[in-house]
Amino acid sequence: MDAAAIEMTGVRHRYDDTCEILRGIDLTIEPGEVFGFLGHNGAGKTTAINILTTLIVPTSGLARVCGYDVVEQRREVTGCIGYLPSDVRLYGHMTAAENLEFFAKLSGVADPRGAVSETLAFLDCADLADRRVGTFSTGMRQRIGIAQAVVHRPRVLFLDEPTAGLDPLAVRQLRETMLRLNRELGITVFMNTHLLSEVAKVCTTIGVLNHGTLVYKDSIAETIRRFPDEASLEDIYVLMESPPT
Amino acid sequence: MIATIAAHQFRSLRRRRVLSAFGAIMIAVTVLAGVIGWSSHRTIARVYNEAVVLLGADGGAAPPNPFELKPTLSLLSNMAIYVPLIGALLALIVGNLSIADDQSSGIGRLIFSRQVSRSSYFLGKLLGTTAVVAVVLAASLFVSIVALLVANETAPDVGDLSRLVLFYAVSWLYLMVFVLIGMVTVLCTERRSLALLSAIGVWLVITFAVPQFTSGLRPTASLNPVTDPVSTTQTFFRITSHARPFSVSEQYKHASAQILDTASGSAANALVRILPIAGLAVSLALAAFWLVGRHDYSRSTSSG
Fold it and tell me: pTM of the full predicted structure?
């Protein structure tokens, strides 16, 4: 049986003595899932992604990606993940193809040029290859950002607020891209987001983080079944985030 | 991995026109040094020829042509001033950009979420910036040779060429000190603008302030590699003058003057003078390496 795509056990993280941002997260995401990680600003979503992408080391607890420990087996973890942060800009003075080729080489792709062409074609943005990234709109930059995250065919893709700043058309394109990556390439997607409408359309599972604690995790179908009285996912989200009375 | 990062760094600085701007400025100052040297050569020759005529009219014997006593490379003696003043400032910018771009744009997060170690990243950056400085100085070396060829109307001999190459090698080492200062200041500060200001502050101290103290406030110390006309009597400056071996800009200027044969001392003596520069470069490289290793790449720094 395959290892869980993502496994977090008692993960805690504090930035200093006063600020504990994650307070013991236990979370398992199976391969092939599209997981929506919801939470208010400052809830700890980005910190969780930073731990899972090996950018920071958790204060305590165990985190595994594709069965590899993010602290002890950093090289193996980074070999099987792709990551798109929320506010990344890439190298604006270089073309999309040059940016992607650089990241493909960093990931040890055997034929970087071939991988770039294939990825751009898969994402329907081959026309952007020879244009400088600095001239791109937000939507175009996001598409190239996704391309850099999957150019090496990762098993798990981390997206941090991928819809931030996008117009409705670009949001729809991004949703279709995520679904294709998941269905056609079998990539597990872990997405931090505020956009609840997108979560319902794309994700198979959701988790809600409230002040560093995972207060809810279940499949979308089960969530809707468990909360029949709530009109929308937004109502469920508000319910989850509300302090108990 | 190191080669990939180095090649990318080189390409990045070329695309941002930093390489061409740096190269154009260094070529311009090399031409300027050549023109100034050529002009002084012509002035000395003209004065000498007039003096010979006057002395001949008075029946006096003509002294030897002073220009013939001057070494061939003295034409480029001003390069020893331009490199610390202009080259070092441009090298700071190269060092700053090489690290700051990845931090403020958040690209560092993309790089370190891949199979890239901090050591490979730093060595790649160092190699890329080293190549940029080397290419610029190679272009300046070529222009220097052309300037010597034009001004002296004869090709420099092997000895002069070797000295010229040695001068540019020492200049490369000196400029790398400032590339590394540019890197270290970015890694120590949260804001790009503050990092550049700090780096310029360090450049001012190294280039102007320290030589003033180590030479007993001799005003020409920050510019010219000349010996003390008078020794200082103030105790404070007598003490600070003992730190002269650590005044890297003075050491560079004296070493350059010896290599270009415009000051007394052999090229071998000059190599002893560059030891503090090499020591500082290695220390800064270790500091930058350590700072890259502990930098938090999970967040972007301010680009302001």
Answer: 0.85
